[in-house]
Design a protein that fits this description.
Layout: E1 4-7, H1 11-23, E2 27-33, H2 40-44, E3 47-52, H3 63-73, E4 77-79, H4 89-98, E5 101-102, H5 107-114, H6 116-125, H7 141-151, E6 155-163, E7 166-171, H8 174-192, E8 197-201, E9 207-215, E10 221-233, E11 236-242, H9 249-265, E12 270-278, E13 284-290, H10 297-304, H11 308-316, E14 333-340, E15 342-343, E16 349-350, E17 353-354, E18 357-359, E19 366-370, E20 377-378, E21 385-393, H12 396-409, E22 411-413, H13 419-425, H14 429-432, H15 440-443
Parallel strand pairs: 1-2, 1-4, 2-3, 4-5
Antiparallel strand pairs: 6-7, 6-8, 9-10, 9-12, 10-11, 11-14, 12-13, 14-21, 15-16, 17-20, 18-22, 19-21
Helix pairs in contact: 4-5, 7-8
The structure holds adenosine-5'-diphosphate.
Residues 131, 156, 162-166, 168, 200-203, 206, 208, 232, 235, 275, 277, 287-288, 438 line the site of adenosine-5'-diphosphate.
Length: 452
């Protein structure tokens, strides 16, 4: 078993990983940038090492500094969390060379699945349905136009290296296509240093339904059911729930087995998420595989009782899965509300700053994963998510009521957060009915109370 774990991340996920490691008797090493010196993960870890100044390219993305920190502290494993280096195959190769366990899949598996165009081809070969799209990368606007004429508009231009909604543009008609194709490529080049793009048919009103999978090095793989992440702004998730209100037990089994088949087809080891779009007729299409733990993993933990971070650590230590598919039971309903330092009344513009007052809700079925504390300064440098409110209840209706109760208790002052957005969403009939698609925010009147 891993003895000492370095966490190559910050924020709530670093805290989450430190907690799991501590319960397993694993020593922890935090790394931090200068601006994060007072951050919670630094306080909670057994040791902490500064790896550079605030900009992530000079700290949390600095591979040599992180490897050096692991070596000098004697850590035998690194957990990357999500974001930063989590899906960086080169980083995994550096860990391999240094003899450090990377808590995640192999570099080759990341290469195979991290490139979206290639992942689509792999899914097709494994018999998993994919969104109608171009065969591989599309080089020119003329080729893109030809594809769009074949499948019909609207089409979606996607960066092969994309993530976090970046490098993705919709073209409604031929006039828009050239402009959007160039825009997507430019955005991808700037964000990922790779301007390859491909096309997909833009599906009307899909739901985003993703399956959590765990696979060990002995070739066992299980699915821990699904998460419905249809509530998004600018293609980024805001509210997730498990199970999806849209799945029947039969469809759940079919999609879960497709996800496991894909994971097995690429000899994948550790935690993965297989993302699908689901249309109104119950047809599902593979979108991409995320080769890391997801932000929204806690809702799966709440309905299965399985600690995904601990499973990751056990798998990385070479242990076989302790569970089989038949052991996994779906219990109740869970919802995650992402609390971001953003002003939802003004187009979700970032709102970093000092938190003077912080009141965290509690009670039965309420879990808050956060790195914030009263007096904490939310830096403008990183992701705007500052907390995750995770609700569990025996039924969806009870989870909605509990969510509203907990959100009303939660106070984060004076910065603006997405709390009023969530409260407003909980008042929308279609959300209450579970009748939503990824265009929910654009197509619904959501009366957010402006806090001024
Ligand atoms: P990223 O990796 O940047 O998060 P994804 O491929 O996961 O991008 O897609 C993010 C979101 O974009 C999806 O949840 C969905 O809302 C939307 N989306 C992606 N592909 C399609 C498509 N072909 N048709 C309609 N919506 C799509």
């Amino acid at each position: 078993m891993i003895q000492k774990l370095l966490i190559a991340n910050r924020g709530e996920i670093a805290v989450r990983i430190i907690r799991a490691a501590r319960e397993m008797g694993i020593a922890t090493v935090a790394v931090f940038s200068e601006i994060d010196a007072d951050s919670m993960h630094v306080r909670l870890a057994d040791e902490a090492i500064c790896i550079g100044p605030a900009p992530s390219v000079k700290s949390y993305l600095m591979v040599p500094n992180i490897i050096m920190a692991a070596k000098s502290s004697g850590a035998d494993a690194i957990h990357p969390g999500y974001g930063f280096l989590a899906e960086n195959a080169d980083f995994v190769r550096h860990c391999d060379e240094a003899g450090i366990i990377f808590v995640g899949p192999s570099a080759d598996a990341i290469d195979r699945m991290g490139n979206k165009a290639q992942a689509r081809a792999t899914a097709q070969a494994a018999g998993v349905p994919v969104v109608p799209g171009s065969d591989g990368v599309v080089e020119t606007a003329a080729d893109a136009a030809q594809f769009a004429d074949e499948v019909g508009y609207p089409v979606l231009i996607k960066a092969s290296a994309g993530g976090g909604g970046k490098g993705m543009r919709v073209a409604e008609n031929a006039d828009e296509l050239e402009k959007q194709f160039t825009a997507a490529k430019n955005e991808a080049a700037a964000a990922f240093g790779n301007d390859e793009a491909y096309l997909e048919k833009y599906l009307a009103k899909p739901r985003h339904v993703e399956f959590q999978v765990l696979a060990d090095s002995a070739g066992n793989a299980v699915y821990l059911f699904e998460r419905d992440c249809s509530i998004q702004r600018r293609h980024q998730k805001l509210i997730e729930e498990a199970p999806s209100p849209a799945l029947t037990p039969q469809l759940r089994k079919k999609m879960g087995e497709a996800a496991v088949a894909l994971v097995k087809a690429v000899d994948y080891v550790n935690a993965a998420t297989v993302e699908f779009l689901l249309d109104k007729d119950g047809k599902f299409y593979f979108m991409e595989m995320n080769t890391r733990v997801q932000v929204e993993h806690p809702i799966t933990e709440q309905i299965t009782g399985i600690d995904i971070i601990k499973e990751q650590l056990r798998i990385a230590s070479g242990e076989p899965l302790s569970i089989t598919q038949d052991d996994i039971e779906l219990d109740g309903h869970a919802i995650e509300f992402r609390i971001n330092a953003e002003d939802p009344a003004h187009d979700f513009r970032p709102n970093p700053g000092r938190i003077d007052q912080l009141i965290v809700p509690g009670g039965f079925g309420v879990r808050v994963d956060t790195h914030c504390y009263p007096g904490y300064l939310v830096p403008p440098t990183y992701d705007s998510m500052i907390a995750k409110l995770v609700i569990w209840a025996p039924t969806r209706d009870e989870a909605l009521a509990r969510g509203a109760r907990a959100l009303a208790e939660m106070i984060i002052d004076p910065i603006k957060t997405t709390i009023p957005f969530h409260q407003a969403a909980l008042r929308v009939d279609d959300f209450i009915a579970g009748d939503v698609a990824t265009d929910f925010i654009e197509t619904h009147q959501i009366d957010i109370e402006d806090e001024g």
